[in-house]
Write a structure and sequence with these properties.
Layout (H helix, E strand, L loop, with lengths): L1 H20 L19 H14 L18 H13 L12
Amino acid sequence: MNKTARFLSVAAVAAFASFGAHADEADGSQFALKFDTNRTRAEVAAEAATVAQTRSIEPAGSRVVTYKSTADRAAVRAQAAEALRTGQIPHGEFSAM
């Protein structure tokens, strides 16, 4: 019991001493950002308005590009059949070993 009491008292003193190392102002003012600028509020507002007008709400690459074909369906089928017959289009299982 004497060892336990001594251990707990040392732990309490160590914990109390560590609070002093973390002491700081309550508002955290050491992290406050300070800016020196020569632009007026009107200039910043005008720039923000032009950026908002030129920005798209669609993510990049989300729009699908459509393609209008002018080829005849029968001609495309005939070309595919010819390519398959001459071996230009692989068919069946392919083993890379």
